[in-house]
Amino acid sequence: MMMISSARLRRLSCALLLALCGLCGALFSQPAVAQDISSPLAQLATDSYADTEAALGALALSGSPAAAGIVSALADGKLVFSAVPRQVFLRTEAGLVDPLTLQPVADPPAVKPVRVNNRVRRAIEAANGTLSLVSPDPARRLEAATAVARSRDTAALPALDLALSKEADPKVKTALTLARASIVMGQPGVSDAERIAAIGLVGAEGNQDALAILQGVPAESSPAVKQAAADAIAGIERSLAMWSMAQNVWYGLSLGSVLLLAAIGLAITFGVMGVINMAHGEMVMLGAYTTFVVQDAIRTYNPGLFDWSLIIAIPLAFLFTGLIGVIIERTVIRFLYGRALETLLATWGISLILQQAIRTIFGPTNREVGAPSWMSGSFDIGQLAITSGRLWIIVFAILVFVALLATLRMTRIGLEMRAVTQNRRMAASMGIRTNWVDAMTFGLGSGIAGIAGVALSQIDNVSPNLGQSYIIDSFLVVVFGGVGNLWGTLVGAMSLGIANKLLEPYAGAVLGKIALLVIVILFIQKRPRGLFALKGRSIEA
């Protein structure tokens, strides 16, 4: 017998071990391949509607990357087959190609299209839906899962199981699980325990789709299943009611921020000067038209700056409307101090003049003001839908409020304005030029109205009548919150905005506004100075 040295034996053992490792690596490191689709392709070449329908179902569940292209080609009438040999091809502009490799056929045989009837068309739609469930695009998979949940098609159950076994995205997996549960709930031959478990999964979603699915529980279900469905429906309805109230509060905050922007300039003008400025709405309108002019110029000369259009329009609108305000105060208002009715009539006439001037320059029709990309889109928090535009307007309103508060607290003009507000005669005796303060105050209030118009151009029609929509509500906010008090204006705007949106679902938009007006009138009867009354000159008056 031949003897093998220990050193050689070790070398042979190492080689054998390496060979085994390589073999294991070849077996286990290869990715999972899709199911072979040669059999479904052969069925497509039989020229039988039943075979074509069966082949589509097999292709949809195969997981083959070529399946989507084959189904799409059949839907477009570009799938053909040859009788000898029996083979399927894709017809392209360059000729026939192999459906698996997409390589051109060197010697193309005589072919005819795979026939399609209504049953096959329905099978194509079903196959596309199944393929969507395993699409590489998560958004498409989510859309397909939602569609299956609504249709509750029992035939989609194998496809759902296949998609669930492969899904890694948590959001899509939840949608797939919900779709499967919605099918199981109504599938014949399912135990009550499985149905109740499916009802629990659907009820946990807590949205309108889940509610619609639960309301479709079969009438012949057992009492236990019906009770579970009723409990889940009641829970969803409670949850939706809470989310609906939260949505209305959000809408109220959004409306309140708009009212705050429109009223905050009026608050300081009315508080310092005691002027009933009916042209305040037209300052808002001028700010909106300033935004339109800026965007029109940017579209013409430098479209790349469009996303900066609102940022550019804010200081321009403030300066332009502020200058108009100073001119109005110096030429008209300063002769009417102490005569509230005359200021009301004079500013109302000015508002008509400004409206007609805008009609003459820009025409009576609405003007388009676009939204920058950073103000477009929306997102959800639970069942709460939040649009980016409204969110930015709320943030902008808060920033304007803080900036105005800082101006009044930390600047010389702010100190002089507060002094004139509290006691005009004492301020004048201390050397404060009250006439100058009045002009600056009117200009500041008008400038703030102008930047309010920049924001409102994003949510309302830019037309000569824009300001008329907000002037009454602005006065209501100022009077309710307390004349001349910024914190009162903030609380008043948010309170009226939220109350308005909470009343609308029950009383309607018109009756809700009327009810709110009556409530404010009754409140003013008890507190004539509003929520936060100023002390000083207003008491002397």
UniProtKB/TrEMBL annotation:
Protein's membrane topology: Multi-pass membrane protein
Compartment annotation: Cell membrane
Transmembrane residue ranges: 58-81, 249-276, 308-328, 340-358, 391-415, 436-455, 475-499, 506-524
Residue ranges that the Swiss-Prot or TrEMBL entry lists as coiled coil: none
Entry keyword set: Amino-acid transport, Cell membrane, Membrane, Signal, Transmembrane, Transmembrane helix, Transport
One Pfam family this sequence matches: BPD_transp_2
Signal peptide residue numbers: 1-34
Principal subcellular localization: membrane
PANTHER family: ABC TRANSPORTER PERMEASE PROTEIN, BRANCHED-CHAIN AMINO ACID TRANSPORT SYSTEM PERMEASE PROTEIN LIVH
Protein name, per record: Urea transport system permease protein
Organism: Ancylobacter amanitiformis
